[in-house]
Amino acid sequence: MKKALVALLVAAMTILGMSGVATAQDEEETVVGTVESDPPAVPAAGEYTVTATGAGFIPDSTILLGSCQSPADTLTPGVSSVEEITAAAGAIDPLANCDLANALTITVDGDGAFEEEVTAEIGDNFFLTAGTITGAPQAGAVWIPIVDPAAAQLAVTGVESSHLALMGVALVLFGAVAVQAGRRRATI
Question: Same structural domain for residues 72 and 32?
């Protein structure tokens, strides 16, 4: 069940953002790729090495992979909506909110994918962003939240409990329908 929660967190966290600055002259549509992080969350603020995996980028292109902190209101795992996370990613200004001095230049493979280890100082509203500053516009981002392991375990237990409760309600409703159907047959 813990893997299911992690998969759900990964899906929620694989939110796409813009990491390039678009101008009115950009007539090309931005290619939006996906970026994922392993691990998908960290237990406390601090320096971590994560593996960034990207897909859906322009094959054989060059992108920058950077560490950014969104200026948006603080996101909260399990509380912030997909829309809030997406808005936080979209609020990132690469020149003001990203560590461009330590950004990695990545060559995307022929399938439009990449994998790279990144060491970064992860704190609130931390995003790994991938994109271009020049050339064909492409972008992607992933939020890496701080999730207390004890709270994550409680969340897993809560998910299991809610599934059990739903199954119990379904069984009670099924029983009520069966009893009523039996009564109808008895009166006919």
Answer: yes
Centre a 10 Å sphere on the Cβ of residue 177 and count the other Cβ atoms it contains. 10
Would you call the peptide bond into 39 cis, given omega within 30 degrees of 0 as the criterion? yes
CA distance 36 to 100: 20
Residue 187's pLDDT band, with cuts at 50, 70 and 90, is low
Between CA 170 and CA 184 the distance in angstroms is 21
Containing structural domain, residue 104 = 2-147
Are both 92 and 182 inside the same structural domain? Answer: no
Q: What CA–CA distance (Å, rounded) separates 123 from 44?
A: 8
Rounded distance between C-alpha atoms, residue 79 and residue 75, angstroms: 8
Question: Taking the CB of residue 157, how many other CB atoms lie within 10 A of it?
Answer: 12
Same-domain pairing of 185 and 136: no
When mean pLDDT is compared across 11-25, 26-40, 174-188, the lowest value belongs to 11-25
98-122 tens-digit pLDDT? 999 999 999 999 999 999 999 999 9
Listed residue (53, 49, 55, 60) closest to 36, CA to CA: 53
Q: Please give the biggest Cα pair distance in the chain.
A: 82
The single-letter DSSP state of residue 74 is P
Q: Say whether both 102 and 168 belong to one domain.
A: no
46 plus 126 within the same structural domain: yes
